[in-house]
Specification:
alpha/beta, Rossmann fold, five-stranded parallel beta sheet, four-stranded mixed beta sheet, 7 helices, binds guanosine-5'-monophosphate
């Protein structure tokens, strides 16, 4: 298989990692393509199948697990499964591009362990758990229950930060975007 680089961005939900990943995807010199994950949850807001996620049923998801079609998968929240299909990475490598992932911390670390040399694993750190709560509420795409579930998970996720190659503190979004760009640029030019 082609040796395109793997760029992993992981963080608790609401840390701003998706915004940073979108910013990097706009930089042509990085030659990045987004790894579209499979997800068993319903689309939110403007999300589209085949662009943000491959939205599939829980049943289909379990079939893919059985078929060993995933590079990694996680039940990120109860009954919400997310995973990276092996075929997705092959698709991107066949285009001659580097892969960028927006995935949870466990999945991110799993990819780093599978491809240690090829992967840059970045953890995006929010200013505080309170700020995270504020951002998730502001986004208001989920019920209070779901927001609370995400916040409860955040503390556990924050503890994994030292296992990543680099930590970007997202206290100011423009600074974090620029820092991410420089990091990825250095890594893909190696
Ligand atoms: P959301 O529901 O907010 O889109 O995503 C929930 C969490 O699942 C986020 O932390 C997101 O990064 C993570 N996630 C998305 N795709 C994948 C994947 O393929 N694998 C893993 N392990 N996590 C994922």
């Amino acid at each position: 298989m082609n040796k395109g680089k793997l760029i992993v961005f992981s963080a608790p939900s609401g840390s701003g990692k998706t915004t940073i990943v979108r910013h990097l995807l706009g930089k042509e010199d990085l030659n990045l393509e987004f790894s579209i994950s499979a997800a068993s949850r319903d689309p939110r807001g403007e999300e589209e199948h085949g662009k943000d996620y491959y939205f599939i049923s829980l049943e289909q998801f379990k079939k893919h697990i059985k078929g060993e079609d995933f590079l990694e998968w996680e039940e990120v929240y109860r009954d919400n499964f997310y995973g990276t299909l092996k075929a997705e990475i092959e698709r991107i490598w066949a285009l001659g591009k580097n892969v960028i992932f927006d995935i949870d911390v466990a999945g991110g670390l799993r990819i780093k362990h599978k491809f240690p040399e090829q992967t840059l694993a970045v953890f995006v750190k929010p200013p505080s758990v309170d700020e995270l709560k504020r951002r998730l509420k502001q986004r208001s795409t989920e019920t209070d229950d779901k927001i609370n579930m995400r916040i409860a998970k955040a503390s556990v996720e924050l503890a994994t930060a030292p296992q990543f190659d680099t930590i970007i503190k997202n206290y100011d979004l423009d600074t974090a975007k620029e820092e991410a760009y420089q990091l990825v640029k250095d890594f893909v030019s190696k």
